[in-house]
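User: Let's play a game. I give you a shape written as tokens, and you guess the letters that built it. Ready? Here's round one.
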């Protein structure tokens, strides 16, 4: 009987140790997930900031493109007038 109780106690201790290892592993995994989630959030913020900067650059490029077209049109108009005058 005592031998049986010792075997049961040893098995319960082993299972308890395994359970503690599992709990620690889950806890460590949760910490890693939290770290990764924080990094993903940082990257998302950076991407959002870059999107804003790209949109600003696109707006400026559109403005420059429009200005160049207007300058080119005026230049062509002046060249046409100069050709007609000669």
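Assistant: Ready! My guess for every position:
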């Amino acid at each position: 009987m005592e031998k049986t109780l010792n075997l049961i106690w040893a098995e319960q201790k082993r299972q308890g140790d395994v359970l503690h290892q599992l709990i620690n592993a889950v806890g460590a995994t949760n910490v890693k997930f939290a770290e990764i989630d924080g990094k993903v959030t940082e990257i998302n913020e950076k991407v959002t900031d870059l999107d804003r900067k790209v949109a600003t650059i696109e707006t400026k490029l559109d403005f420059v493109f429009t200005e160049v077209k207007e300058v080119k049109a005026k230049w062509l108009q002046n060249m046409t007038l100069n050709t007609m005058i000669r």
